[in-house]
Amino acid sequence: MFLQRAATQCLRKAGPCAALRPFAALQSSTQRFFAAAALSRQSAFQQALESNTRWASETAQSDSKFFPTSAQGQSPAILWIGCSDSRVPETTVLGLKPGDVFTHRNIANIVSPTDLSLLSVVEFSVAHLKVKHIVVCGHSKCGGVAGCLANGKLGGSLDIWLQPLRALREKHDAELKGMEVDGQRAFMSAANVRQGVEVMKRIPTVIDAMKERGLQVHGLVYDLASGKLEDVDCDEKDDVAALREAAFERK
């Protein structure tokens, strides 16, 4: 009560606006915070544009034919199916240049036989660009993999999109139970890649190219901690390949 009376007396002496000053200060601080955040976002975008200008200039100086040649068309040898994660840019990871890799990326590098966007990319790159290799690449510390291992909903379209990964988790439930969290994530990343390779090999366009001109399909996992790509064993027996060709081959 003493503190309350003292505070009331102080406010009376200070005038009617004194009680509002802390709120005004808070509002001002909040406005400064959001203004700084907006400036930071704009700054990041501006920095990206400036970086592009430097890159274009340096690239043109080091190879005067690069951009004129690039403008004439593309003939990539690799189709890369990867995760949308910002830490796994395929051209940088492979040490290659623009024009070397045709790319499709999505959350958790899921290869679905009903994904029209993916199928369009495969059709164009295999049938028209004649790529020689298809790479399905996952990575460590994948948020999509972590999400499928969690028992809660992620919300919105993410739960629908990750259904193939959750089904894969159910399939390997007995194996996953005996692992630590990091082990589970590594296991699921590799299993997801294998499943992606299997689905890819059942696409008629891919089957034809494998049979007619030796197109190869590979599985890889990128390790964020080391920056290195690790091969995922996706080998299959000859009779399995023959049965798949017979079942999915276009007549």
Provide a short characterization of the protein structure.
The chain is 58% helix and 12% strand. It is built from 12 helices and 5 strands.
What does this structure look like?
The chain has two domains: 73 residues; 174 residues, Beta-carbonic Anhydrase, Chain A. The N and C termini lie far apart (91 Å). The chain has a five-stranded mixed beta sheet with strand order 2-1-3-4-5. About 2% of the residues have low confidence. It is of the alpha/beta class. It contains twelve helices and five strands. The chain is globular and about 70 Å long. A hairpin with a 4-residue loop joins β4 and β5.
Radius of gyration: 27 Å
Low-pLDDT ranges: 16-20
Oligomer: single chain
CATH superfamily of the largest domain: Carbonic anhydrase
Strand order across the largest sheet: 2-1-3-4-5
CATH topology of the largest domain: Beta-carbonic Anhydrase, Chain A
Share in β-strands: 5-15%
Order of helices and strands: HHHEHEHEHHHHHHEEH
Supply the number of structural domains: 2
Q: Per CATH, which architecture of the largest domain?
A: 3-Layer(aba) Sandwich
Number of strands: 5
- Terminus-to-terminus distance: 91 Å
Main sheet, how many strands, which sense, barrel? 5 strands, mixed
Helicity, in percent?
55-70%
- Helices, by number, come to 12
**Can you give the mean pLDDT?**
88
